[in-house]
TrEMBL record:
Name of protein: Putative NADH dehydrogenase I, F subunit
Naturally occurring in which organism (per UniProt): Halococcus morrhuae DSM 1307
Matching Pfam families: Complex1_51K, NADH_4Fe-4S
InterPro entries assigned to the protein according to its UniProt record, in alphabetical order: Nuo51_FMN-bd, Nuo51_FMN-bd_sf, Nuop51_4Fe4S-bd, Nuop51_4Fe4S-bd_sf
Entries under PANTHER family matching the protein: NADH-QUINONE OXIDOREDUCTASE SUBUNIT F
Length: 504
């Protein structure tokens, strides 16, 4: 059954997410104890961890955003609203809004826009104003044709069609033998990328509704939500959402996989769901759309992709279908000078600079998660073609690093992670990552061989079986190209950043 949200005013909303969970839960309890007539709603996180615990007070079309709220302060805010007055004293922001988390002029909630994120922090996680899956069940042809015409691309590591048209995979799954299944791949263990976890904690009903719409479009009989075993809050809220949505006869299962980076790769996710003791990437072709979970045609989408699909179904006129990457992208900004992780939403024609708050200075940025590209400038549009053309990643992370960060040490740390975390199935990734580490170590011994590093990186990227190995060399090659003089200085016995020569 579809849940709907009650009237919006007056109301107190307490954003409870895995960040500051205990403190936010205490604030929620205090607010409920103090409330007489005011409605108190437990919502999911807003995406702005630096503000947590966040409380939103709404009355007469205005919303006051309060950050870092204590239980005592929560009681005061509730009592003020109960007395008929909007509590604005010491508010982080006061905005004309009663339909979604407001966007103030400054702070982590001011960046980009809030289309997919509109209800994150505003509505109860299991609430669903309208089931778009019901529309899809009534007219699946319309959804298939609309998505194909819009040219929607898959989003995030672990999607079955990352940065590619999702419509082709849908058609393949429909035409392949066997009963199709839709997998929601929500197992993202990259600490620099939080978009999927945010959606699962804050808007699980919408993610499920999107998955059920896809199931209708590809004539799938099952939806499987695959989570990280450590994401307990997301798992609880997804299970609550399963009870609230209208599945229309589609079976929904919720399963967990290991908290390992490789477990989020599309085919290794399928291995984990099938109970494999050892996770290894599957050879392709055939891809999961033909032979996936237990041999069935499988459509694999991340929560971010499903959120875009749902946004398109809800308001197709808002999508610029002539764009190479229509819609928006979620980006999590972390790193030096960032008060707390902030997941923001940018239109794909908007530069990444819009995701960074005023005053946040940096020497370099890593764009694209664990194996993102190194850059000095964020003046690059958020679209997949633009990011790929700039040799940056599209996985949804923007990490900022100040002058105390050494480019060589950073590249070496990412190469070591590739060496230690790869599945070991293919030689280029398994052996190539070892050789990358050794060539980077040689720099400290006076041997900087940039051409050898570039060639090895090219071979690993072009020959590896899965996205892990294909992306693993990117931090190394982009660091060399962006900071070649700094790296070369290490071969002469000095670190321009002054941080690593004594420890390597």
């Amino acid at each position: 059954m579809v849940g709907t949200e009650a009237a919006t005013t007056p109301a107190i909303r307490v954003a409870v997410g895995s960040a500051e969970y205990d403190r936010a839960s205490a604030v929620l309890e205090a607010a409920r104890e103090a409330a007489a007539d005011v409605r108190v709603v437990e919502t999911g996180p807003t995406g702005a961890a630096a503000l947590a615990p966040v409380m939103l007070a709404t009355a007469d079309g205005r919303t006051a955003v309060h950050a870092d709220v204590s239980p005592d302060r929560a009681r005061e805010l509730v009592e003020t609203l109960d007395d008929g007055e909007l509590p604005t004293d010491d508010a982080h922001a006061v905005v004309e809004s009663d339909e979604g988390v407001p966007m103030p002029e400054t702070g982590p909630l001011a960046a980009g826009q809030r289309r997919v994120l509109a209800r994150c922090g505003w509505a109860a996680p299991a609430a669903l104003d309208e089931s778009l899956a019901e529309r899809a069940r009534d007219d699946p042809d319309d959804l298939r044709e609309g998505v194909a015409g819009a040219g929607l691309l898959g989003r995030g590591r672990g999607d079955g069609h990352t940065d590619e048209s999702i419509a082709e995979g849908w058609e393949t799954a429909r035409e392949s033998d066997g009963e199709a299944v839709v997998v929601v791949n929500g197992n993202e263990s990259d600490p620099a990328v939080d978009g999927d976890r945010l959606l699962l904690e804050s808007r699980p009903a919408e993610v499920l509704d999107g998955a059920l719409a896809v199931a209708a479009a590809v004539e799938a009989t099952d939806v499987v939500v695959y989570l990280n075993e450590d994401d307990e809050l997301a798992a609880r809220r997804v299970r609550e959402a399963v009870e609230s949505v209208d599945a229309g006869g589609t079976e929904i299962d919720v399963v967990a996989g290991p908290d390992r980076y490789i477990a989020g790769e599309m085919t290794m996710a399928l291995e984990a769901m099938e109970g494999a003791d050892r996770l290894e990437a599957r050879l392709r072709p055939p891809g999961p759309s033909e032979v996936g979970l237990y041999g069935r045609p499988t459509v694999v989408h991340t929560p971010r992709t499903l959120a875009q699909i749902r946004a398109f179904v809800a308001a197709p006129d808002e999508f610029e279908t002539s764009a190479a990457d229509p819609g928006t992208r979620l980006l999590t900004v972390t790193g030096d000078g960032v008060a707390g992780p902030a997941t923001v939403e940018l239109a794909t024609d908007t530069a990444l600079t819009e995701a960074v708050a005023d005053g946040e200075e940096y020497k370099m940025a890593c764009v694209g998660g664990r194996f993102g590209g190194i850059t000095r400038s964020l003046d690059v549009p958020a679209s997949a073609p633009a990011l790929t053309g700039a040799r940056l990643g599209t996985e949804g992370g923007v990490e900022l690093f100040d002058g105390a960060t050494c480019a060589l040490e950073f590249a070496g740390a990412r190469a070591k992670f590739a060496r230690e975390a790869n599945c070991g199935r293919c030689v280029p990734c398994r052996e190539g990552s070892k050789q990358l580490v050794e060539l980077l170590r040689d720099v400290y011994d006076g041997q900087f061989q940039p051409n050898e590093l570039r060639e090895l990186s090219r071979v690993v990227a072009e020959s590896s079986t899965c996205e892990f190995g294909q992306a693993a060399p990117r931090p190394v090659t982009t660091a060399i190209d962006t900071f070649e003089r700094e790296i070369a200085a290490h071969a002469e016995g000095r670190c321009p950043s002054g941080v690593c020569m004594e420890t390597n």
